[in-house]
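Sanity check

After download, print the first record. It should look like this:
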Amino acid sequence: MTSLRDAAMNSKAWPFEEARAVLKRYGGKEPEKGYVLFETGYGPSGLPHIGTFGEVARTTMIRRAFEIISDIPTRLICFSDDVDGMRKVPDNVPNQEMLRQHMQKPLTSVPDPYGEFESFGHHNNAMLRRFLDTFGFEYEFISATEFYKSGRFDDTLRLAAERYEQIMEIMLPSLREERQQTYSCFLPIHPETGRVLYVPMKHVDKRDHTITFDDEEGREWTLPVTGGHVKLQWKPDFGARWAALGVDFEMYGKDHSTNTPIYDGICEVLGGRKPNHFTYELFLDEKGQKISKSKGNGLTIDEWLTYAATESLSYFMYQKPKTAKRLWWDVIPKAVDEYHQQLKAFPEQSLEQQVNNPVWHIHNGKPPESRMVVSFAMLLNLASVAAAKDAAGLWKFIRRYAPEASPETHPDLDAAAGYAVRYFADKIAPSRHFRLPTERERAAMEDLVARLKVWDGGLDDEALQSMVFAVGKDHGFEPLRDWFKALYEVLLGASEGPRFGGFIALYGVEESVALIERGLRGELVG
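Expected structure tokens:
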């Protein structure tokens, strides 16, 4: 009989493939530091967005996969680069004029525009942690401010001063000629203004580990590279952090991929071993543009969770991480239904199939039972005709369709019903457009009403679907898709919709007759 570890070692699921690569990194033996370190980085220049969650979710999936194939202890660090100078004011935060007065200061030195935390960086860090905690991630949080000021980074910073020329040899070829003239991997933090300065170095002292520079007013300063007086430019910081912490694995977006040789080279110059990498494709908004936390043009975690359970977002993140994905409102219903389809398939699958099922990775090998006897897409269509204000408004239809179901015994369905009512009201109702039927469509719908009025087949989805199908065929619709499209546009105000037989079974035969008659009378238009 195949063991879980054997199945995992042969699984083609991408978390297991990455986990096996990390295990191979040490020849299957425990590292000298006693654990394998996974890291995710976060730039808190704006409110956390869904891509940030995706990095932690996917890294956690790889970490859990690693724990199946190996007994080596693991750690996951979420690192916030909150010493970064604020270079622009995000579009989606209040008090923008106040923020403009603190440009170029480290984010943990910029006042919180919301007035809730000691700084903007602390605010954004708190938002990140709250979001991650919502999903129950196990992680250790490190603030770059604490990392620099506490001395934890000092040994690596001293080494950076000693090997300054080697770091610059890696960096300079990647820069435009004009930038090369003034570039330094060290960014001093001005002792008086507190601003992060982008100024050339006059001298880097390898023995005393200090830098000497002129500020913007031409005054000369000498600062130690340790103790939080200086930060590294973000590309050198990436590699230096890997070296200082002993990072074994980090994933990042495709927009970082051209920098990978730089990160790796600096890590090695500073005495570290470059980690395993995983480059994922970017998320796109409804226009196909890359989502940006500063523009706020993608969905936030809170926005997704307004309309669907947390597991559906994890499912979305699992799917094809190396393929660019559109991340907009209409992906939510699809993610919910596909997630539950995988849950329902799981119990009947072999162990080899289960470790390739997304829900194994979402639930660390212990997925719950799905009680969704009605799909989310169907709940949305039910919400569109039931005039429901909450989940209770849908349950009278659900109980008739599935008498064994109740909010108590089917909590996932109850939650989905509430989400569906909310999603319909906010995202579908405002854009619905009803139309009157054509003459041929009217004749077919009148025929459908007549057949439904004498229907004695109960609430059998398939039988009702066959009957609706037959009506379309009898009235010469070719392709038959045009018949169903007419039903959706006349009765639901949309060009796409559910299997109509299933819709009738859920909504009710008499109710469906009344709906079609309203559409024929033109009462749904306008």
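If your output differs, re-run the checksum step. Summary of this record's structure: The domain at 439-521 is CATH 1.10.10.350 (Arc Repressor Mutant, subunit A).
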